[in-house]
Design brief:
This protein is an alpha+beta fold. The protein has three domains: 39-111, no CATH class; 142-237 and 338-372, no CATH class; 250-333, no CATH class. The chain is 27% helix and 31% strand. The chain is built from ten helices and 24 strands. It has helices at residues 2-19, 122-127, 130-133, 140-163, 187-195, 223-226, 256-265, 303-310, 344-352, 357-364; strands at 28-37, 40-44, 48-52, 56-59, 63-68, 71-74, 77-78, 82-87, 94-96, 99-101, 104-110, 113-121, 170-171, 199-203, 206-207, 212-213, 250-255, 273-278, 289-294, 297-302, 320-325, 328-333, 342-343, 369-372. Strands 4-3-8-11-12-1-13 form a seven-stranded mixed β-sheet. Strands 7-6-5-2-9-10 form a six-stranded antiparallel β-sheet, with no helix packed on it. The protein has a three-stranded antiparallel β-sheet with strand order 15-14-24. Strand 11 (104-110) and strand 12 form a beta hairpin. Helix 4 packs across helix 5 (187-195) and helix 4 (140-163) crosses helix 10.
Amino acid sequence: MKNLVLFLSIISLILLFVSDGYVQTSPLVRVMILEGQKSVEIGATGSYEVKGEIQTHLFKLPQKAKPTPEGISIDQELFGRKIWINPKEKNSLVMVNRRRYRGEILVQQNGLFLEVINQLPVEEYLYGVIKWEISPTWPLSVLKAQAIVARTYALKKVKDASAKNYEFYLTNTVDDQVYEGVEAEDPRTTEAVNLTRGEVLTYQGELINAYYHCCCGGYTADPRDVWGGGFPYLKAKPDEFCKGSPYYRWELKIEVEEVAKILRENGYSVGKIYRIRPGSRDEGGRVREICVEYRGGKRYIKGAELRRLIGPDRLKSTLFTVKRWADYFIFTGRGWGHGVGMCQWGAKEMAERGYNTREILQSYYPGTRIEKIY
């Protein structure tokens, strides 16, 4: 029965891509690479075509695309509110603000600003992702694990966003996966993508929510404690493998008044802050909620929300203790990221100890299967 469910799920995914006009074996993804732009420089490494709603034109040199009340203007001519940019020469690459991208580019007008979306096959998208998510110098088995996880994450977003008719499926930031086009490619990460072509993680025939993070600090997290929804293949568990990470332990020193200012600017009415006390913790020790005591009262804030407000690159995780010293709060913590799914530094250590790609993924996503869907 499970095999039948898996087969039908894979067929439905392929049909989804075909029904959207995706005739390539590698499904297409649409990635928002720029938004809120007053102008965008477009071009290619060879000649390129700009196809708009009003006209189509062939260019050889870079051009500025600008939004106007009447539509997008290029070289003082109007093309409409949407333009597609396609290289016309073999092996040529499209360019946006002098950065190279595979596939094609959609520039669309939103008010008096421009948005830029890169549409390309998911395998070529992954070429520009893996290096930013994990070091190309790490063992090939962990690079392959990262490629499978990143592909699964992307295709799950494609499936979900397509069902809702979204203009794009992914952003190019840490909100999804960091993507920087051809400039972010590396031979070793490209090899890992090619060796795992079409491979994804499934659970009972469905693409999983393939979350991952930098370093768990010795204990992964249950998504119920982070976002409020759980999955059978994502569980909190001890992880002995990431102790060698430079982010296993960290400390943040921040002025008390800066914390108060951050909270006020984000809608929390607090007076002079006296103390921050962690409240409940999950089984791995991550702070679920903190109590901010201030002149006139106290406020309870989720640990993940405090991390978001202070900045996830500063308050690296919610696995912390906090104390006040003079006019400062000292946060002492472990790990970097939300803690859900694969710990990248833990996966690195597993690879160095001889674990293969399948064993790494089974450790972080128990009960899942690696399936080749194209």
